[in-house]
Design brief:
The protein starts with 5 loop residues before the first helix and ends in a 5-residue tail after the last strand. By secondary structure, it is mainly alpha-helical. The chain has helices at about 5-30, 35-105, 120-140, 175-185, 195-205, 215-220, 225-230, 235-245, 245-260; strands at about 155-160, 165, 265, 295.
Length: about 300
């Protein structure tokens, strides 16, 4: 940073040199003491004046520099405050915009019913939760009925192609639930083996060698592992599938395929599958490669 004016320093130096020259000349002449004193005083005065000018210019330069630094600091702080205010303003604007969009979602939304004022829904919610819990308990804890129910009516009537057909319309709700219950644990799920298991149970009901109700057949001691070990479950969807028009038609086909067979074994005993006791030497029927094979009692 430059202090003062260079020309001022030069002028001061020249003045001092001039005053010194006059004083030196006066001393050499010694002709007039008053002239020497006057020259000395004049030189002294000029030196002080020049020194004062230099000090004044230095002070002004320092003041200007200090003022400039102060102005820069003030401007910088002002910029920082303005930036902070802008940031807060933008954040607030974003929140207001978000709230506005949220308000639009609910404004004039006719799909959302307006709730009556001062309505207590706790009782309704409690009742709904109880119904759900009761339904889940009923499914989880379902046990096949053991009460005496009328025998399942599996009637035979000749069809147009000479084969037999079966009327399943007489099965009760309990019959379908019990049939679905044993199928859930004994069949290869999601395959036609489900209809095979159902048909084999119905064949037992129709046979004089077994009880005459579905409940009694599936609850007979030592007959179905899924019932004994708890692997069976009540599945409303499976019940509905077996009971549907398509399901009944598949069960009838399975009854025709089994031709009275009442027993089946799973994959673990697949090596025992044989043609013994079967007409024309056919192998024990299966409805799916991963399902059960079906046979007559005592065959294997």
């Amino acid at each position: 940073m430059a202090f003062g004016n260079i020309s001022s320093y030069v002028a001061a130096g020249q003045s001092a040199n001039s005053a010194g020259a006059q004083l030196f000349a006066a001393q050499r002449s010694r002709s007039n003491p008053d002239q020497i004193l006057k020259a000395a005083m004049q030189a002294r005065a000029e030196e002080k004046l020049n020194a004062m000018k230099i000090e004044s210019e230095l002070a002004q330069t320092a003041i200007k520099a200090t003022g400039k630094v102060a102005n820069q600091a003030i401007a910088s702080e002002a910029d920082m405050r303005v930036s902070a205010i802008k940031g807060k303003t933008q954040a607030m604007a974003g929140k207001v915009a978000m709230l506005g969009e949220t308000a639009k979602m609910f404004k004039n939304d006719r799909r959302r019913p307006k709730a009556p004022v001062n309505v207590d829904y706790s009782e309704l919610l409690t009742d709904a939760n109880k119904r759900v819990t009761d339904a889940q308990d009923k499914i989880t804890n379902f046990k096949p009925t053991t009460m005496d129910t009328p025998p399942a009516q599996i009637s035979e009537a000749p069809s147009q192609n000479g084969s037999s057909s079966y009327d399943l319309s007489k099965l009760t709700d309990d019959d379908w639930n019990n049939l679905s219950y044993v199928v859930s644990g004994e069949a290869a799920r999601g395959t036609k083996d489900e209809y095979g298991v159902a048909a084999s149970v119905l064949n037992r009901v129709a046979s004089s060698k077994f009880p005459n109700t579905i409940s009694a057949v599936i609850n007979a001691p030592g007959q179905y592992a899924a019932i004994r070990d708890g692997g069976a479950r009540l599945e409303p969807a499976l019940t509905a599938s077996l009971r549907s028009e398509t399901g009944r038609a598949e069960i009838i086909k399975a009854l025709e395929t089994l031709n009275g067979r009442t027993d089946f074994k799973g994959q673990a005993l697949l090596g025992n599958r044989s043609s013994r006791g079967n007409e024309n030497g056919i192998m024990d029927p299966m409805f799916h490669p991963k399902g059960n094979f079906y046979h007559f009692p005592g065959q294997t």
